[in-house]
């Protein structure tokens, strides 16, 4: 990790976390009660642990009651470079006092961002649209795919997450309240080998799940599939990692069938997995790529990129947006692109991930409640099970461990029986190890309560 990041993000591991009042404390509860009169539909994180935060610095969060927590969520995969990163803050302040918005007119900072993004993006993804949230950039990608192919159907995967607009939700697991998905959207099993939908075992399965996509194109859809839309690593689904040869096989299948490969990296971009873009782990070049979350380190800015091969078919596809590409957003994103290229940072992320995985393996060796651990860089997961033989997910235990660790000072992300770990990329081994010690302590307490 660069000296800049190491110095700015440094924290005395003996002083964190620092819990002064059992959370959620009285001030947090008071704020939550005031807000609850008007707001519904909180995330599972907030519903389970109603803390009100006051400030953040680097890898530490502070709540309104004065408690300090180790941030193992990065604002849900967003603050990759730490809270209130001074480089990002400096650029935001500069443009907040200079030029905040001018619709989709060009600015120098916008052009610099686009040039830098195209320079470092793999393949021929040389065409950029800027948006303000993940759902919007996914919708834009769907429009691009329709225009490029003249087709209108999409195939996505079980437990993928692609947003909360109608198009994004139609690619995602929907609820009874959401109603039916949009016409032409179909889903197939993801390569979740720990819970294989086909009850097969990798690698003897020969990745039957990829072959099933071919059948879905023929039998589920009407052979008007514009794109296959996929998260390279599932986030909302529980930090689920496919085998290393899965995405390359999906790429090959798309090319064979004349279907676009649309990779949604809203969650995995900006170095989260130890590569600037997650697809670089497998040398896969998508036709459409979406970026978000850590792209602006907290400021709302996202992007949709597409291949030169389809750029001539984009007539009539608008990229104008009320807020997308505003100078403040572009300044934040450019600062993040420069940060992710700091010498040694990606190596640090890779080494930190290996350190955490090794520690997680030791936790699994000791605790029977832990059925599976997985990870790459600063994107990791722990799955809790009722029985390792049956692999039945233990959702109640997941919520219990999540709450206990949070109470002890670790802010992290639940996903039913799966617990997601997403520390800022600049976190030190010492602080990450301290957080994992707290998580192991919480697992042990839950095992004792459940009679393991």
Explain what you see.
- The chain is an alpha/beta fold and 452 residues long.
- Among the domains are: 1-68, no CATH class; 121-325, Aspartate Aminotransferase, domain 2 (3-Layer(aba) Sandwich).
- It is 37% helix and 15% strand.
- It is built from 14 helices and 15 strands.
- It has helices at residues 3-8, 26-36, 44-48, 74-77, 86-96, 108-120, 134-149, 166-170, 208-219, 246-257, 327-340, 345-366, 395-408, 429-450; strands at 53-57, 60-63, 68-71, 127-131, 153-157, 185-188, 225-230, 260-265, 288-291, 302-306, 370-376, 379-384, 410-411, 413-415, 418-421.
- The strands form three sheets. The chain has a seven-stranded mixed beta sheet with strand order 4-10-9-8-7-5-6, with helices on both faces.
- The longest helix is centred in the last third of the chain and has 22 residues, at 345-366.
- It is globular, with a radius of gyration of 22 Å.
- The model has no long low-confidence stretch (mean pLDDT 94).
Question: What's the structural blueprint in terms of helices and strands?
Answer:
Elements: H1 3-8, H2 26-36, H3 44-48, E1 53-57, E2 60-63, E3 68-71, H4 74-77, H5 86-96, H6 108-120, E4 127-131, H7 134-149, E5 153-157, H8 166-170, E6 185-188, H9 208-219, E7 225-230, H10 246-257, E8 260-265, E9 288-291, E10 302-306, H11 327-340, H12 345-366, E11 370-376, E12 379-384, H13 395-408, E13 410-411, E14 413-415, E15 418-421, H14 429-450
Parallel strand pairs: 3-13, 5-6, 5-7, 7-8, 8-9
Antiparallel strand pairs: 1-2, 2-3, 4-10, 9-10, 11-12, 12-15, 14-15
Helix pairs in contact: 5-11, 6-11, 12-14, 13-14
């Amino acid at each position: 990790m660069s000296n800049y990041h190491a110095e700015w993000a440094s924290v005395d591991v003996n002083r964190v976390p620092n819990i002064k009042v059992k959370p959620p404390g009285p001030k947090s509860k008071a704020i939550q009660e005031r807000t609850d009169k008007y707001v519904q539909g909180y995330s599972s994180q907030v519903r389970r642990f109603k803390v009100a935060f006051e400030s953040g610095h680097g890898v530490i969060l502070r709540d309104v009651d004065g408690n300090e927590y180790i941030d193992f969520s990065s604002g849900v995969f967003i603050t990759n470079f730490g809270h209130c990163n001074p480089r990002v803050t400096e650029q935001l302040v500069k443009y907040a006092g200079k030029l905040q918005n001018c619709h989709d007119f060009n600015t120098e900072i916008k052009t610099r961002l686009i040039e830098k993004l195209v320079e470092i993006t793999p393949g021929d993804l040389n065409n950029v649209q800027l948006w303000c949230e993940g759902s919007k950039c996914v919708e834009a990608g769907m429009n691009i795919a329709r225009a490029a192919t003249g087709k209108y159907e999409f195939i996505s995967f079980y437990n993928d997450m692609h947003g909360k607009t109608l198009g994004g939700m139609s690619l995602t697991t929907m609820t009874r309240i959401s109603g039916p998905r949009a016409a032409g959207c179909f889903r197939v099993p993801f390569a979740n080998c720990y819970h294989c939908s086909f009850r097969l075992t990798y690698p003897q399965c020969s990745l039957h799940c990829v072959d099933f996509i071919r059948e879905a194109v023929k039998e589920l859809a009407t052979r008007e599939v514009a794109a296959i839309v996929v998260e390279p690593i599932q986030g909302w689904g529980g930090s689920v990692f496919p085998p290393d040869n899965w995405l390359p096989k999906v790429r090959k299948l798309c090319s064979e069938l004349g279907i676009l490969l649309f990779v949604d990296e809203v969650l995995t971009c900006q170095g989260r997995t130890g590569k600037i873009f997650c697809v670089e782990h497998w040398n896969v070049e998508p036709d459409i790529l979406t970026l978000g979350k850590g792209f602006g380190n907290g400021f709302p800015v996202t992007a949709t990129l597409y291949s030169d091969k389809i750029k001539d078919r984009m007539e009539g596809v608008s990229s104008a947006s009320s807020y997308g590409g505003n100078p403040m957003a572009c300044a934040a994103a450019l600062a993040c692109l420069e940060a992710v290229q700091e010498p040694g940072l990606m190596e640090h992320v890779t080494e930190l991930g290996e350190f955490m995985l090794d520690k997680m393996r030791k936790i699994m060796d000791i605790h029977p409640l832990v059925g599976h651990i997985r990870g790459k860089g600063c994107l990791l997961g722990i799955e809790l099970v009722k029985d390792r033989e049956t692999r039945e997910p233990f959702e109640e235990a997941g919520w219990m461990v999540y709450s206990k660790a949070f109470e002890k000072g670790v802010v992290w992300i639940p996903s039913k029986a799966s617990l997601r770990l997403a520390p800022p990329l600049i976190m030190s081994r010492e602080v990450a190890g301290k957080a994992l010690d707290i998580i192991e302590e919480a697992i042990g307490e839950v095992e004792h309560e459940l009679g393991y």
